[in-house]
Amino acid sequence: MNAVHHHDHDQGAKLSRNQSQILSCLRKAGEPLSAYTILDRVRVSGISHPPTVYRALNELMQKGMVHRLQTRSAFIACGHGACDGKFAFAICRQCQKVVEIPLSDEDQTALLAFSPEEIDAEQVTLELAGVCQQCRPRAAV
After folding, report:
1. Beta-strand (E) ranges in 63-126?
2. What residues make up the domain containing 43?
3. For strand 66-69 and strand 87-92, is the pairing parallel, antiparallel, or unpaired?
4. Which end of the chain, N or C, is more open, meaning fewer C-beta atoms within 10 Å of its C-beta?
5. Please, which pLDDT band fits residue 9 given cuts at 50, 70 and 90?
6. What is the CATH number of the domain that holds 117?
7. Cα atoms in the 13 Å half-sphere on the side-chain side of 30
8. Is the separation of the CB atoms in 47 and 21 below 8 Å?
9. Does the pLDDT at position 11 exceed 60?
10. 73-94 pLDDT, tens per residue?
11. Is 53 exposed, middle or buried (0-12, 13-18, 19+ CB in 10 A)?
């Protein structure tokens, strides 16, 4: 169960103690975690209430350091340290591996154009589900 991570852009970010604990938990996990799983893992550091976890997660999402996987009701650390939110995600149904797919401004604009006239779309959430190469059955030779 893996998430692809590269932590190069977040060195200067100022984080509260709770944010640091939760971000560290997500990075160590290497897989998507629910808020309650995060809570269970950070209790030892003194974080013991769900609103504290949700507040820190929301702040980390605003900083672009954590992403919410809508279809999984789970969170992952940004694979690029921090980003502008223009990413799609490919998720393996078997091992839960998550790969971030960067979207260009043109990609984002094209996806927003699918919105019907009665909705003024502001954000795209795109998650692709499938089976990764490691989980795919090997073809018989």
Report:
1. 66-69, 74-77, 87-92, 98-102
2. 1-141
3. unpaired
4. C
5. very low
6. 1.10.10.10
7. 4
8. yes
9. no
10. 999 998 776 677 788 999 999 9
11. buried
CB count, 10 Å around CB of 126?
A: 14
**Collapsed DSSP state (helix, strand, coil) of residue 105:** helix
Beta-carbon count within 10 A of 60 CB: 26
Q: Which residues contact 108 (CB under 8 A, 6 or more apart)?
A: 86, 124
Answering whether pTM is above 0.85, one says no
Q: Which of 61, 4, 58, 64 is nearest to 31 (CA)?
A: 4
Number of separate domains in the chain:
1
Residue 89 near residue 128 (C-beta atoms within 8 A): yes
Q: Which position has the token pair 């929301």?
A: 58
Beta strands (DSSP E) in 52-124 are 66-69, 74-77, 87-92, 98-102
pLDDT in tens, 31-85: 899 999 999 999 999 999 999 999 999 999 999 899 999 989 999 998 776 677 7
Q: In this structure, how many other beta carbons lie within 10 angstroms of the beta carbon of residue 72?
A: 17
Averaged pLDDT for residues 9-16: 66
